[in-house]
Amino acid sequence: MGYFDRSKRILLAMATAVAFSVTAGHAMADELKAAHFMPPMHPMDRGVMTPLAEELEAATDGELTIRIYPSGELGKGPVQQYKRVVTGVADIAFGIPAYTATQFPKTVMIHMPGLFDSGEAATNALWDNLDAISDEYGETKLLGLWANNPSVLISAGKPVRTLADVKGMKIRTPNPVMAEVVEAWGGIPVSMPTPEIYNAMNTGVIDAVIIGPSGIRSYKLNEIGSYATINIPSAVDSFYLLMNKQSWDGLSDEHKAKIDELTGRKLSLRGARAFYDAGQAGIQLARDSDVEIIEIDAAADAEFREAMAGALDALIEKTSQETGTNAREIITGFAGQ
């Protein structure tokens, strides 16, 4: 064998070794795809998902990473988030149980108006009673489950100070529970995803929206709302972060342990806190934008609660029949009674 032939073989062997090394390095670094439907600067991206991605990369020395796909990049429409994570379109997905309420009939009992004064209290209630609702997440790995602060009512054409003010108003509601409540108040509930609210209220399709206060900033409702009733008896909204079961099962035990350390109640309380901070900023933004901030008095509060009591009782009984569970017991558990 000549000198040049030997040189060629040596160079080929070196190139193969380098290629193998690079390939092996890529094989060791696993990337999880995380999908959500909000803008990249949304509080849930900045306050929950991005920190989780950074912490997981650090905890695994870069061997396991999360790439976040915001604004529906893995598929438009927030209603399909649960399907995306179950089918593996996304390894991880952020979503809202109320958008697929038939999948989460027990979880959405947390939305009963008047149960909680804060998202933190509601989030702890979810985790304290996880055994009662965990079967609703059996197709996935549950990473996070949390709530925001009670919703506020943003209206465009007229203020809401009393029950009579609601009569005939078309109001976007965040979940089926609040839809029943709005109807009991004499309003007309309208269901639509949050990204559609701005145009709907701007064009008169709806007169008002019930939404977590963080939504004021996220969806620029300070631009189209004239009034914000911030203490109307309302409900918290709930949110999940789920992982595809096969993606979870494919991880090493070490990486599973790292994810468990970073998620669960700990991550969920971070989500609740991010919503609280964003909610306070949203209300302040409304003030700064000359939106009139309204707080109803005790008499009006009692009037709203009395009007919705029958609807809530009927909803509890209906849920019990449809799910074969004791919905009242679940709600009592959430309330810590």
Helix/sheet category: alpha/beta
Across the major sheet, the strand order is 7-6-8-5-9-11
Reported for the largest beta sheet, the result is: 6 strands, mixed
Mean pLDDT: 90
Distance linking N and C termini: 87 Å
Summarize the helix and strand pattern as letters: HEHEHEHHEEHEHEHEHEEHHHEHH
Task: Tell me what the structure shows.
Helices cover 47% and strands 16% of the residues. It has 337 residues and is α/β, with parallel strands linked by helices. It folds into 2 domains: 161 residues, Bacterial extracellular solute-binding protein, family 7 (D-Maltodextrin-Binding Protein, domain 2); 128 residues, Bacterial extracellular solute-binding protein, family 7 (D-Maltodextrin-Binding Protein, domain 2), CATH 3.40.190.170. Strand 6, helix 7 and strand 7 form a beta-alpha-beta unit. The termini are far apart.
Provide a short characterization of the protein structure.
By secondary structure, the protein is α/β, with parallel strands linked by helices. 47% of the residues lie in helices and 16% in strands. The N and C termini lie far apart (87 Å).
Keywords:
single chain, 337 residues, alpha/beta, D-Maltodextrin-Binding Protein, domain 2, 2 domains, 6-stranded mixed beta sheet, 47% helix
Topology, element by element:
Elements: H1 3-28, E1 30-35, H2 43-59, E2 64-69, H3 81-87, E3 92-95, H4 119-128, H5 130-133, E4 140-147, E5 152-155, H6 163-166, E6 170-173, H7 176-184, E7 188-191, H8 197-202, E8 208-211, H9 215-218, E9 227-229, E10 238-244, H10 245-249, H11 253-262, H12 265-288, E11 292-294, H13 298-323, H14 327-334
Parallel strand pairs: 1-2, 1-3, 6-7, 6-8, 9-11
Antiparallel strand pairs: 3-10, 4-10, 5-8, 5-9
